[in-house]
Write a structure and sequence with these properties.
The chain is mostly helical and 464 residues long. Among the domains are: 235-335; 342-463, no CATH class. It has helices spanning 9-21, 30-37, 41-50, 56-68, 71-79, 87-104, 120-147, 152-158, 173-186, 190-206, 209-238, 243-256, 267-276, 282-305, 311-336, 342-358, 361-376, 382-390, 398-422, 442-463. The chain starts with 8 loop residues before the first helix and ends with a helix. Residues 8-18 have a biased composition (Basic and acidic residues). One of its GO terms (molecular function) is chromatin binding.
Length: 464
């Protein structure tokens, strides 16, 4: 077979002319797509993802890459007061803007395992993207923060954009830091608080010269303001109001997670609230205890890595440690420990008996395990519940009997350890499962067990 003749020079020229005279159409802008085809977008996304059955993460990443290339359009859409879309759509646009900024730095929008190393060319592209984003955000970023500062979801996303800006080029850093401080005190939920702390800490570490000093001063102002607000809040706790203190405790807690915040001026007031006001909300109590704990943890870090430490610092640390342990012990005894009265205990056991009589094997085991744990963990007194458990020792099969035996052995081991610590002799109390718990009348036990065994034997004969 002869080889085909090469195309003529005129044919090649015609093809090139057709190629450049009919260029590939540009993709529509996101604003046009949303406005004209909003209802078709979900179907398009579905078809796109379904076409990548084996690697749907890559499909989503490629799709979102196409969308976020128009991030400048998103930026101006968010600032356009005449662009009327729902609040939910605005939130999604903010998410898309943040995703586009991350994508410009090579981060995958859809998380995946990717160990590829970036070469010098790719790093240069990312650096250029960083410059472009910084220039585009120069005036827009403070306007966005100011516009959405009251929306906790949007502001949580927007404040993290500063992590991707070139702070040496950005000229409105002071305005942005002031807005972040305002956002920090405007919200009390975890996400906006954590995002603001992360962004301000970033400015303190990554900026240079005057900006770094300004960021650190702003952070110090923020810490001092929280301490002052908490002092006022503690006075409100004395008057019976703890909502204001709860919000400020959350703020201080988020700061403590990332850096040392001195609460020496608050330590006595916190301990006073824990000791004298037992009607405070559980979350407030928990946050107060966490403040004391993190304060000790950061103090210990400074002792370990801070070089020479004075004896006064060590004594202060040990005193605060003992105070925290004492308060934890009181709360464990008062709040966690629960002592029901005899009527409630009787009603509880009646419910257990009903479940033991009508339930299947696995449910019976669960019921008896719950009852045994109440005794072995010293949650309720043994006097009433232990004999009642013994009465069902052989009535519900081997599984229930085995659980009772294990509870018996656990109780024996606990008694042995307790006696050993106290230096007292200990005598084995177990009689083949017939004395499961200690403090009971032996004759009463034998009566219960003999009746139970007779009932079980009668049921066995009847079944045979």
């Amino acid at each position: 077979m002869e080889n085909p003749a090469p195309p003529s020079e005129e044919h090649v020229k015609r093809e090139r002319s057709a190629k450049y005279s009919n260029p590939k159409p540009k993709p529509p802008r996101i604003s046009e797509v949303i406005k004209d085809n909003g209802k078709l977008i979900p179907h398009a996304v579905k078809l796109w993802v379904e076409s990548y059955e084996k690697d749907q993460r890559s499909a989503m990443d490629e799709l979102l890459t196409t969308l976020v290339e128009d991030w400048k359009c998103i930026l101006y859409m968010l600032l356009d007061e005449n662009f009327s879309i729902s609040d939910k759509s605005v939130t999604n646009l903010v998410r898309l803007l943040c995703a586009s900024v991350k994508k410009a730095f090579g981060e995958r929008i859809v998380p995946t395992i990717d160990n590829r190393n970036t070469d010098n060319f790719v790093r240069e592209v990312f650096e250029n993207n960083k410059q472009d984003i910084t220039v585009a955000m120069m005036k827009c970023y403070p306007l966005l923060l100011r516009k959405f500062i009251s929306d906790k979801t949007k502001v949580s996303l927007l404040v993290e954009i500063i992590l991707y800006l070139n702070l040496e080029l950005y000229s409105l850093k002071r305005n942005v830091l002031q807005l972040m401080k305002e956002a920090f005190f405007k919200h009390g939920d975890k996400d906006p608080l954590r995002a603001c702390v992360k962004a301000i800490n970033f400015c303190c570490k990554e900026s240079r010269g005057e900006l770094q000093d300004f960021a650190r001063n702003k952070l110090k102002e923020l810490e001092d303001e929280i301490i002052d607000k908490l002092k006022s809040a503690i006075k409100e706790v004395e008057d019976g109001g703890d909502e204001y203190s709860l919000v400020n405790l959350r703020r201080l807690h988020e700061l403590q997670l990332s850096r040392y915040v001195s609460i020496d001026n608050l330590h006595e007031e916190i301990v006073m609230v824990l000791r004298n006001y037992r009607n405070v909300e559980d979350e407030v109590v928990g946050l107060l205890l966490q403040l004391l704990h993190f304060h000790l943890a950061w103090s210990l870090m400074s002792i370990i890595y801070g070089g020479s430490v004075s004896a006064a610092s060590i004594n202060s640390f040990l005193s605060k440690r003992d105070t925290l342990l004492s308060e934890l012990d009181k709360i464990r005894s008062e709040f966690v420990g629960y002592q029901p009265n005899s009527y409630e205990l009787q009603k509880f056991w009646e419910l257990c008996q009903q479940q033991l009589n009508v339930s299947e094997g696995s449910n019976r085991c669960a019921v008896l395990i719950a009852a045994c744990k109440l005794i072995t963990n010293d949650v309720v007194p043994k006097d009433y519940l232990a004999p009642e458990i013994i009465s069902h020792f052989v009535m519900h099969g081997t599984d229930v009997a085995e659980i009772t035996n294990k509870a018996n052995h656990f109780s024996d081991d606990k008694e042995r350890v307790s006696a050993k610590r106290q230096g007292c002799p200990w005598k084995m109390q177990n009689m083949q499962g017939k004395k499961v718990f200690k403090d009971r009348s032996s004759s009463e036990d034998e009566d219960y067990i003999s009746v139970s065994e007779q009932n079980a034997q009668g049921q066995a004969r009847g079944g045979g």
